[in-house]
Request: fold
Amino acid sequence: MILSGKEILERLTMVAPVSTPAGLERVKELINEGKVVISPFPDISKMLEVLSLELEIGKIKIPESPGFLKEICIDFSRPETLKEKFEISDKEQVFLHPNPRDFLRVETRQFLGIPADLVAQIGIGSKFATHGLEIIGEPAYLLPGFVGKVELNIKNSGNRPIVLSPGLPIFQLVFELLSSPLNI
Reply:
């Protein structure tokens, strides 16, 4: 059974900070209580859909990809552009071109914890998917007991470049109730 937006909202909870051992322990306690943990907590008025929750881009990593690196300018004032792989800052944008060899490694901004009775499928939101953005190896599932940020490889199979930047809500998370909880 897929959870509705209302059911997702009833189960969402936030913890802060999650980067400490005590914060991670609290996440485990909450998912054992059946809560879906998310941090930072999203703007529900913008991110909660009828049957899903949107997640934003956090970090964008440009991998070692033969075609992609030709599109990146070498900037001597930014030493990271001299490397074969680097990360985009929070204020920058990157163009993902429709080249089959090009992809980006993207991390969600939100940290998640999935309880024992749910599985979550993460995909690209339809508004972005209709323009060619897709996850390589889709569908991607977050299994019961998952704790952390999600990292996915994305590509552009459309016919025009797509501009991506941290904070853009491209991901869609759909929760499904398991017939019985798993031991996590």
About this structure: DSSP finds four helices and 15 strands in the chain. Residues 5-177 form a domain with the Deoxyuridine 5'-Triphosphate Nucleotidohydrolase; Chain A fold (CATH 2.70.40.10). The two ends are 20 Å apart (CA to CA). The first helix runs from residue 5 to 11.
